[in-house]
Amino acid sequence: MSQRNETEVLCEVIDNTRELTLYYLTKLKGIDIYKTFTAGGQSFNSAFWIICHLAWAQDFLLLKATSGPDLKIGWLRDFSIGSTLPPREECPPIAAVLEGMREIHVQAVKHLKTLTGDQLNEPNAINLKFGEDSSKRICIHHCIRHEGVHMGHLSWLTKMHGVKPA
User: Fold this and answer.
1) I need a surface site. Which of 25, 64, 87, 129 has the fewest CB within 10 A?
2) Is the predicted pLDDT of residue 155 greater than 60, yes or no?
């Protein structure tokens, strides 16, 4: 087996993480994806918001942060950090969301595979810092971590909706 470069390994992890997210999405078929739950006085995001937010995050952290292509998906802006779920009638159709999520992922992986190790060391294009690190690499790492966190939320939501996640 030939030696893989860093971006190939990162893309493999991004793909693998997304595969598990998609698995949880299959468990949410047939439920009200807009439904929110409250526990301990805190309201949890709906599955719909999380799905849209994961698309936003890949666009922001994998494309914008690394100077990738702008896919011009208008609804993404409604699902950034700290946003709340718009009224249902103002939300994009779930089919459009899933297609956007798919396209962002495909384009992000394609773009990332073009980056060299030196380019990963460059400052990211969104001025994001984790500690002292403002590299494009740290944005990619954070995207992987971020998706894992929200994937866990999707797992909880399957249980809250009465669906066994496994």
Assistant:
1) 87
2) yes
Is residue 140 within 8 Å of 54, Cβ to Cβ? no
Task: Provide the whole-model pTM.
Answer: 0.95
Residue type, 66: T
Please list the helix, strand and coil fractions of the chain in percent, rounded to the nearest 5, in that order: 60, 5, 35
Structure tokens belonging to residue 28: 């949410």
Instruction: Find the helix packing angle between 6-27 and 47-58, rounded to 10°.
Output: 170
Q: Which residues contact 111 (CB under 8 A, 6 or more apart)?
A: 62, 63, 66, 68, 69
Task: Supply 105's token pair.
Answer: 């992922």
Tell me which residue has tokens 């809250």.
160
Q: Partners of 123 in the beta sheet?
A: 135
Dist. CA 115–CA 139, nearest whole Å: 13
Query: What is the CA 84 to chain-centroid distance, rounded?
Result: 16
CB atoms within 10 A of CB 121: 11
Whole-angstrom Cα distance, residue 37 to residue 9?
37
Q: Which tokens is 140 given?
A: 């990619």
| pLDDT tens digit sequence for 119-139 | 999 999 999 999 999 999 999
